[in-house]
Write a structure and sequence with these properties.
Helix content: 40-55%
CATH superfamily of the largest domain: Histidine kinase-like ATPase, C-terminal domain
CATH topology of the largest domain: Heat Shock Protein 90
């Protein structure tokens, strides 16, 4: 049942509106049919009762032996009169015939035994067959003979039902067009909002959404635009602050290195000089990272398989042990330069501490996973989150002699999360570490 339940707001509006229309039409049809049936019965009973009273009264003034001719002369196409000695024989007595009989007996002010009623087809024949439904009323006169009246029922219910069904289908078709058009206009601002939120979650730069729709939807869009503006302003201020700190650190570091030039050359001065060089390297790396974060690279659709293969080819050209077997093209909307930078940082990390980098791509339809595996000593489970912190280097398995300032994985995670994905680490059963970068696909 849940499989056929509409998920979208527009689809639910359409289904609920059309369902309400169908229910209202069905209720109207049943109500009208019931009222129509009662009206027809009342009209037939009143007309036939009055006819029987009038004809019975006229027969009192007819010449003896000419009563039958007088009665038959009063017949017409929809109504037939006759004077018979025996009451009509009905094939079956149903609820309609019993209801008519009680009504006629009450209107004629006689006992029910003096009334016979038949309701059905075949009571009045025509040249085209048995004809439509009819009512036959037989009234026993005082002389013992029966005055027989046959009346066709106006219009068949089946024909009216077909016309009602045709009108219902026409109304549904017109209402469907109107509801679909209206629901799309109602839900279009929500679709724009969802698309903007999805693109903003992937790190794309978006413009403020046009404020339109109902008051509730317009207010939601206004708040989203304000949130977007505040987040952009906060990120820009943070980036400028960190970049300014990294830039301002150059002056005291340079001053300290100049003062060391006037001190004797011994182990202490060489150690301090190395520490200052390390600090300068860290500040430069932080400044470079902040500049790259502040750069506005536009997202575009590209082949991720070709991008990964191109990066791997650059390493292979430099005789670096990087392996990758390209497969089918994987189209993805992303920032290619940023993805390339994150991938290089992870590969450099694998080559520095794991001897080799083995790349793999997996596409699940909803997301794409880039795996970079090495054959190093791996990382302890308790330390896997720490390596993503800026300027963190694990001394046990990632010592300082290999170089770097501890920003590689931090930059990679920042890039991947800016695309709406995530990056995780796991130790391989056969030894080594595997880095998984998950990138969501854009929702179409």
């Amino acid at each position: 049942m849940k499989r056929w339940r509409p998920r979208g707001l527009a689809a639910r509006i359409i289904v609920l509106t059309l369902l309400a229309l169908v229910i209202s039409q069905c209720v109207s049809y049943l109500s009208f049919r019931s009222g129509r049936q009662g009206f027809i019965e009342h009209m037939i009973s009143d007309y036939m009762s009055q006819s029987v009273i009038s004809v019975d009264h006229s027969l009192r003034y007819a010449k003896p032996g000419h009563e039958g001719d007088l009665v038959r002369s009063l017949s017409s196409r929809p109504v037939h009169f006759d004077l018979v000695r025996r009451p009509p024989h009905c094939a079956a007595h149903n609820a309609d015939s019993r209801r008519y009989a009680r009504d006629f007996a009450e209107r004629l002010n006689v006992s029910l035994s003096r009334v016979r009623v038949c309701v059905g087809r075949g009571l009045m024949h025509s040249q085209h067959g048995p004809g439509r439904m009819a009512v036959e009323l037989a009234f026993r006169r005082d002389d013992g003979r029966w005055l027989d009246v046959r009346q066709r029922l106006p219009g068949q219910i089946e024909h009216w039902a077909q016309a009602s069904l045709r009108n219902l289908l026409i109304t549904l078709a017109l209402m469907s067009v109107a509801v679909i058009f209206a629901s799309r206009r109602i839900t279009r601002p929500l679709l724009d909002l969802a698309s903007a939120a999805e693109r903003y979650g992937r790190g794309e730069r978006i413009r403020p959404i046009r404020e339109r729709g109902s008051d509730e939807i317009k207010r939601t869009i206004v708040e989203f635009n304000r949130m977007h503006e505040r987040i952009d302003r906060f990120v820009a201020e943070r980036t400028r602050l960190v970049a300014a700190l990294a830039h301002d650190l150059r002056t005291p570091i340079t001053a300290l290195r100049l003062r060391l030039e006037f001190l004797p050359d011994d182990d202490n001065t060489r150690a301090m000089n190395a520490t200052l060089a390390d600090m300068a390297h860290m500040s430069e790396a932080a400044l470079t990272f902040m500049r790259e974060e502040a750069s506005a690279e536009a997202t575009r659709r590209m082949d991720l398989t070709a991008l990964v293969d191109a990066v791997a080819e650059d390493y292979r050209a430099a005789d670096a042990p990087v392996r990758f077997e390209p497969g089918a093209p994987i189209p993805l909307v992303c920032r290619p330069v940023a993805i390339r930078r994150a991938l290089r940082n992870v590969i450099d990390n694998a080559l520095a501490y794991g001897e080799i980098a083995e790349l793999a791509l997996a596409d699940s339809g909803q997301q794409v996973v880039i795996e970079v595996a090495d054959r190093g000593p791996g990382i302890g489970e308790a330390e896997m989150d720490k390596v993503f912190d800026a300027f963190v280097r694990l001394e046990t398995s990632r010592n300082r002699e290999t170089g770097g300032v501890g920003l590689g994985l931090s930059i990679a995670r920042s890039v991947i999360r800016a695309h709406g994905g995530d990056i995780t680490l796991a130790n391989r059963p056969e030894g080594g570490l595997v880095v998984r970068m998950t990138l969501p696909r854009a929702r179409m």
